[in-house]
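Structural prep section.
Before we set up the soaks we want a predicted structure of the protein with LARABZUK in place, mainly to decide which crystallisation condition to try first. Input record follows.
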Amino acid sequence: MSDIKVKICGLSTEDTMAAALDAGADMVGLMFFPKSPRHVTLSQACKLADMARGKADIVAVTVNMDLDGLSRIKELVNPDIIQFHGEEAPESLAAAKVMHGTKVMKAMSISEKADLEAAQYYAIVADWLLFDAKPPKGSELPGGNGVSYDWTILKDLDLKKPFMLSGGLDPENVAEAIRVSGVTAVDVSSGVEREKGVKDSDLIRAFLAAAKGVKVPG
Ligand SMILES: O=C(O)c1ccccc1NCC(=O)[C@H](O)[C@H](O)COP(=O)(O)O
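Run finished without errors. Recording the tokens verbatim:
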């Protein structure tokens, strides 16, 4: 039996980063999308990344970022993984992998099974796939909207690459989401916040305990 992997996304303070690390987060996400309420500056990101290095994988979350922007993040923050959360093509991921020498994660917007079809192309280059909910109409954010989709469509998905479920997860529903989808990795942002963009250490601990409490065959 092995533990579920958990990514806590959009951490922006030292207290909540410490809570996530102490409670056993496997990945911690730092947000580089300026419109996000979880956005961090490069200097904040460096401090938070230093706390996490060697304890959890540092994930830099980007949206359609140009090569210069990615290079600056690589040089200053040195993340373990770059998350691509926009309309980036598989070729852009491949280029970033070669250029920056990091692992890459591709987020895809999902509302129905057909949305999973492109995953096979991304799986050729991506080290991880993240199946997130399609943003609601009018949202300025491609992720972090706290909405979910039918988790059962991920059941029995075989991509030969690891993937995560996200979108609207929280400490109350994460165990059920893992059971009905069969996933072994989950990601959360809004569900561990007390208000939009403000992470809550107690909710982070509760989420990690609930997710890690589900045992999967491994
Ligand atoms: O969280 C954001 O503000 C965000 C903005 C732009 C692109 C991606 C963003 N989040 C990426 C994530 O990996 C979130 O954890 C994921 O979308 C799930 O969010 P939530 O439904 O709020 O748990």
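Observations: Strands lie at 5-8, 27-31, 57-62, 81-84, 103-110, 128-133, 163-165, 185-188, 193-195, 198-199.
Flagged for discussion at group meeting.
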